[in-house]
Design goal:
This protein is of the alpha/beta class. The chain is built from 13 helices and eight strands. It has a single domain, classed as Rossmann fold (3-Layer(aba) Sandwich), CATH 3.40.50. An eight-stranded mixed β-sheet has the order 3-4-2-5-1-6-7-8, with helices on both faces. A hairpin with a 5-residue loop joins strand 3 and strand 4. Bound molecules: adenosine-5'-triphosphate and magnesium ion.
Length: about 270
């Protein structure tokens, strides 16, 4: 099952990365095996903190059919990725500024069945086109959950992948499935725990996952890098409901400090 990667996607991905080697834009995907673990929340706040660290960031909402970053950023985009795929708007027209300096958004479209239009490769063109602009330091992609073909396509296009998980047993089972899939083609996966009070809890779980991966003889060159944890907090759910970013609204809060450490590590480990 985990070997079932589209060869067509693979071919195009290698072409894409080769043709864009000169661009300064690094692609970072934020993904998860299980849904609802906090990917979009962390993606939006990580984009904000990366921009605070001097990076020019564009964030792409690639959750097919369930777009919600425009809600977190509290904007009503004129165009969505769906319009771009249909060729009814230009690249510049699908990029929306946000209220945060150096953070732009390509909004997703809720309720659309992209796959009816284009069965695969729906994201490759926009990712390649954004890279070709050579304008952004980081293209941050908020993927849907799971290991669908669309998610695989995005992950294999990415220079860096950050998996978000909780300590919930089903989230960990799904994380391992994601690790197996990513390890086929990539050498590294960064991991962040959400809803997790203690840094050490994540570290202990990652150690057991590494042992399991060694026992199961996954790609020897492959490494997982634990980069930090974010606690469960009402600050996060409340600011989300108010369509604001907790990292901006509550700069001194412990969850913002935790996420700042995650972002420091991201900058350190990103290729
Ligand atoms: N650390 C946290 N503490 C409290 N609530 C949180 C935390 N992280 C996320 N949430 C809440 O959890 C819910 C799910 O978060 P989010 O939408 O970011 O998850 P997701 O992984 O993007 O989900 P999906 O897989 O559906 O895209 C939201 O209501 C959000 O406010
Ligand atoms: Mg999401």
């Amino acid at each position: 099952m985990f070997n079932n990667i589209s060869t067509q996607a693979n071919k195009l991905v290698s072409l894409t990365r080769r043709s864009n080697k000169k661009s300064k834009t690094k692609v970072l995907s934020i993904t998860s095996g299980k849904g609802g673990v906090g990917k979009s929340t962390l993606s939006a706040n990580i984009a904000y903190l990366l921009a605070k660290n001097g990076k020019n960031v564009i964030i792409l909402d690639a959750d097919i059919g369930l777009a919600n970053l425009q809600v977190l950023f509290n904007i009503k985009p004129l165009n969505t990725i769906y319009d771009y795929i249909k060729n009814s708007c230009s690249l510049e027209e699908v990029i929306s500024p946000t209220m945060y300096k150096n953070v732009s958004l390509v909004a997703g479209a809720s309720g659309h069945q992209y796959t009816l239009q284009n069965s695969s490769m729906i994201f490759t063109r926009i990712v390649e086109d954004i890279i070709s602009l050579n304008r952004y330091d980081i293209l941050l992609i908020d993927t849907g959950a799971g290991i669908s073909q669309e998610v695989q396509e995005l992950l294999f296009l990415s220079d860096n992948i950050l998996a978000v998980t909780t300590t919930d047993p089903s989230a960990l089972t799904d994380l391992y499935a994601l690790i197996k899939m990513v390890s086929i083609k990539k050498d590294k996966l960064l991991i962040c725990f959400n809803y997790t009070l203690k840094y050490e809890t994540g570290a202990a779980i990652i150690n057991s996952i590494i042992k399991l991966a060694q026992k199961n003889k996954l790609n020897r060159k492959f490494m997982v890098q634990y980069i930090g944890n974010v606690s469960e907090s009402k600050t996060i759910s409340t600011t989300n409901r108010l369509r604001k970013l907790f990292a901006d609204q509550f700069k001194q809060d412990s969850v913002t400090i935790e996420l700042e450490l995650v972002v420091d590590n991201l900058i350190l480990y990103m290729e």
